[in-house]
């Protein structure tokens, strides 16, 4: 469906809702947000936590670990302009406004429409916001927006591998730094590339002298892509 946000130019926020398998009337409502910025939350809904997942052939299969076993799962496509969400400005051939602050305001307005008009039976249920990646920005800004208005029964938030601040997280975004920290690149190679070639973000792939070496490093890292990279540990 679509929620209407009227905090500025009229916006229609597209959403999917999957009811809890057991007693949805009392189950919490869990909002899922993908990152990007600009990724559709249906990506996580259809690949991670939703009741039906896309298989390798483009079909659907049941998800034995679906969050709907415990909660009503809601995914919204935000900011406006993502997926099927749109704003009235697009009808005029103009872009939608999608700053982080405006996205938080629009998402809250859409949630108010969801709880007060679309599904008022869920208004008193516990509400949680979850997400990953750039949702590390979306979630705290949306949460503050909700708390400032106190019109939604929010109880908690959770975010995985969050992007919160580029400057503070710059090293962790660098594949060379990450590979060295976790024992995939030895000290000698790391020191050569990092200190002598100055191969670090944001210009890691643009320095001609190290382009080939970095390309080979990334290729080798891809050969172990079947491993869960968040669980690599150096001895």
UniProtKB/TrEMBL annotation:
Pfam families given in the database record: Peptidase_S10
Biological-process GO terms, alphabetical: proteolysis
Single Gene Ontology MF annotation: serine-type carboxypeptidase activity
Keywords: Carboxypeptidase, Hydrolase, Protease
Domain of life according to the entry: Eukaryota
Coiled coil (residue ranges): none
Enzyme Commission numbers on file: 3.4.16.-
Protein family according to the UniProt entry: Belongs to the peptidase S10 family.
Designated name of the protein: Carboxypeptidase
